[in-house]
Design a protein that fits this description.
347 residues, alpha/beta, binds magnesium ion, 43% helix, binds D-xylose
Length: 347
């Protein structure tokens, strides 16, 4: 338990402000241009911005390396002017035709090379925008049928990619963001346990850690706060995507706490009690606003998620630790359960 209190900083990616399209319907709101989104961050209470490579450099695959670097410099100046810090950047390895069979685990050597080259360019962009955290959400590393790939060779390909990136830049840190499915029916590296196992086998384990998303842990049938506790023990929880998820279905990216406030409370508690944020870590969100939300108020999910975190932080910090300890020593977990519930609903 850390004895000093963290001052939390918050971040989100520009894709969290969106037009409301879903797999069954077209956009319902006019877009906000990136330049407009950047204007919103500080007023919403956020100072960290999460990026994909092509959020910084649109149409990245069509540009030369020097054009990519030039565009990255423009964005770096833009975020500096708005008092924003680039928290993380992720190569978007799931939309290109060259990653339809996976990126690092594609059965095609040429496509694996594309994924490596794009990821290295992403590291170069990271350097320009002064970001040391490369997120790998291994979206398409998986199969539609088990027999189309070797699940053991796939681990080797992913590890090779991590080592290539560690070699490409001596300071970059790699944050693996595990997810058990979607878009693949079953994905490789589905949990933080798998990710940390990879970290220890990499060429530089101290530079490989994880980002945990609430919904991804839930989709794996796991408890987000316990997953965070596991990573915190290993000192490898370097970012989070807080949100919520209502059952085992598509990744909903619901506002933090909007389904299960007790589960959200325990995520805040485990972060607070383990000093998360004391080494510059951001409280990251990955949330989608409801399709029904009017454009002019289509950032409320960001405001509510951040405020819910702070409300629950107050609940964590005002929990009577002596009372909690008395219930634990008496092994009266029913009493403790009710005490927590009372505390959360404020009676
Ligand atoms: C999936 C990922 C994705 C980000 C990072 O949840 O977090 O939303 O784009 O690659
Ligand atoms: Mg995410």
């Amino acid at each position: 338990m850390s004895d000093s209190l963290a001052e939390y900083r918050f971040s989100f990616g520009p894709w969290n402000i969106h037009e409301g399209a879903d797999p069954f319907g077209p956009p319902v709101r006019a877009s906000y241009h990136f330049d407009e989104k950047v204007e919103l961050y500080r007023d919403l209470g956020f100072e960290g911005i999460q990026f994909h490579d092509d959020d910084v450099v649109p149409n990245i695959d069509e540009l030369t390396h020097s054009q990519i670097m030039e565009r990255a410099k423009v964005v770096k100046e833009q975020i500096d002017n708005h008092g924003l810090v680039a928290e993380v950047i992720a190569p978007r390895l799931w939309e290109s035709y060259q990653t339809i069979d996976g990126a690092f685990t594609s059965n095609s050597e040429k496509e694996r090379q594309y994924a490596l080259d794009r990821s290295k360019r992403c590291v170069d962009i990271a350097n320009v925008i002064d970001c040391k955290n490369l997120v790998l959400w291994l979206a398409r590393e998986g199969t539609y049928i088990r027999e189309s790939k070797s699940s053991s060779d796939a681990v080797g390909h992913i590890l090779d990619a991590i080592n290539v990136l560690l070699e490409h830049d001596p300071e970059i840190r790699i944050l693996i963001e595990p997810k058990p499915n979607e878009p693949m029916d079953i994905a490789y590296i589905p949990t933080i346990g798998h990710a940390i196992g990879l970290a220890y086998t990499s060429d530089d384990p101290k530079r490989v850690g994880g980002l945990i998303e609430s919904a991804h842990a839930i989709l794996a049938g796991l408890e987000p706060s316990d997953e965070m506790g596991y990573a915190l023990y290993h000192k490898k929880l370097w970012s989070v995507h807080l949100n919520d998820q209502n059952g085992l279905k598509f990744d909903q990216d619901k506002a933090f706490g909007s389904v299960n406030i007790r589960r959200a409370f325990n995520q805040v508690r485990v972060l607070e009690e383990n000093g998360y944020g004391m080494n510059g870590e951001f409280v990251g969100l990955d949330v989608k606003v409801m399709r029904t939300q009017p454009r002019e108020i289509s950032t409320k999910h960001l405001l509510s998620s951040r405020k819910t975190f702070l409300n629950l932080l107050e609940k964590v910090r005002t929990l009577d630790k002596k009372t909690e300890q008395e219930f634990i020593e008496a092994r009266d977990y029913e009493g403790l359960d009710f005490y927590i519930l009372q505390h959360l609903i404020g009676v």
